[in-house]
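REQUEST
  id: r-88c1
  op: predict_structure
  target: FtsW/RodA/SpoVE family cell cycle protein
  payload:
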Amino acid sequence: MSARNRELFALIPAALLVSAGFAAVFLSRDDLLGGLSGTNRVSNVSLTYGAIFLGLCVAAHLVLRVTLRHADPYLFPLCALLASFGLVEIYRIDDGLARLQAQWFVIGLILFAGTIILLRDYRRLERYRYLIAIGGIALLLLPRAFPPVNGAYLSIRIGSLSVQPAEFAKIAMVIFLASYLRDTRQLLVTAGRRVVGVTIPPLKHFGPLLVIWGTSMLLLFYIRDIGSSVMFFGAFLAMIYVATDRLSFVVVGVGIFALGGYLVAGHIGHIADRVDAWRHPFDPKLLQRASGGSYQLAQGLWAQADGGVLGQGFGQAVLRISGNPECVSTVDCSLLPAPHTDFIYAVIVNELGLAGAAGLLGVYLLVVQRGFKIAMLARDSFSKLLATGLTSVFAIQVFVIVGGVTKLIPLTGVTLPFVSYGGSSVLANFVLLALLLLVSDRARRPDTGAGA
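RESPONSE
  id: r-88c1
  status: 200
  body:
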């Protein structure tokens, strides 16, 4: 069976998940019921949603079949599976948000196809690396001109839309680093001096990379965005390790970032509050604090503990207390704050248990495995570093939000890719996916003797 046919058949489980998930939500709510005819209506509506989802994915598949015949056949179906899971889970939380998420999913697929068609030769991006880097930093700083959300400057408002520029900036920074390290990776290793067994690169070559470290610190200090700061610097370390094969660079980088984070956190109240909530989530004083406390994290931990191994059942998580006439939306009156974004993982664990959460994380691991395999197969340095950076930033984003919700690290405000509600996240991750498939197609293409 050809790669593209395998991709086509692999989309079926995602569509089945949509149908089964919506049917489970309808039944848990007693929606569309009414005897035998009502049960049939549940089936019809659920199957219709599944068929629409499958039709949209098949349309994107046809674009891949025509343009990227040699691309990885599993990456797109895996992301479709995550998106289907997210759509059902968000619908279970709030119907209105699910409709908006479905719209963003459609726009994301259009952007996905547009990126593939317009960037067939993605290596042209190298020519504009400094312009892309400046644009990325500008996107990161833009939210500072708008009011903060929960103490951090994460989004900008365009009319009624709220946009998180950091989602797109992460891709810009990876493109810049891939291009810059391709040119300087040898000089970073051979032109440096060894001090106490550690290679110190020449400042003129290491300077732009210090700018990345400074940008990460700036994110902490200026816009108070812990999650983006960790994502950027984590991807930077992964790429510099692949470029130089020097573990010492990673060790020193982690040390410098930890030192900078410690110094900055001591002067930013918002970040210090997050650290305190992480260390003492059940402290009564922090639990009762109206702003900057640990109520959100503690509720998330209780929800996960309540899920147990197999969970309470799909659609069975208690997100709101019935009987309050002022509660119109589950999101606004939820017992678990931000159940559709930051804490959607806690809702999943509560309803599907440890087993369901392990399954979800297993899908993410498969996506990361395919991404790193693309990096290994890539034939030129820029492609290899680009695939490494994109995969790393994706993996670190999952680690940052899951680690925050499970109290492994301080909680941050990033989304769970393709699952959490958020138009910016959906669009940016579809662009990221398109770039990975472009690299994959070039890497898996039969060698015709043409230069890379």
